[in-house]
Amino acid sequence: ELLNRINGKKRYYIVCYCSDISLCTENILEEFFWISLLCRKHSFTLLTKNPTLLYQKVENIFKRFALKGLFAKSFRHIRFAVSIGQNKTIYRLPQIRKFRKLGFKHIDVWFKPLIENINKVDLSGISSIRVNLEKDHGWIRGSVKWMENIVKQAKEQKVKAYFDLEENQKERIRNGNNT
Length: 179
Hints:
Blueprint: H1 2-5, E1 12-15, H2 26-37, E2 43-48, H3 51-67, E3 78-84, H4 92-97, E4 106-114, E5 128-133, H5 143-156, E6 160-163, H6 167-174
Parallel strand pairs: 1-2, 2-3, 3-4, 4-5, 5-6
């Protein structure tokens, strides 16, 4: 059914399952990887808040794939991303980097929703970051400065950085409401 819906031009997909892809079973994840092999012109991002659990499952899957001659280089269209919104979740960075050990090249960090100023972070081994603001609780004072802080750190570490703003947020920044 998924293959019937995925056709035409190249697309970008975020793969979700019960709010976090790490919660699905290994069988479902393995099925996803098999399907993605048939859809190499598309990009898929597996976003997680629990990179350790996801890594354990993906590592098991790729041990089985290796027996069939399949390795991470066959899945260059797959990105792994971790969500960080507070300093207390920075511990996820070393966990998401582990996917490089399996041979995956695209490792991203989504500072989303950014709900406090993030201290100095080590972005080594990270392909790119996305930065966003908290949406559910309105405009948070200082949030634009927080975004700029993260982007500055990314530039210093030569990591691609993207702002992921909604139109009303862009308008507020353009109008000088950047506190």
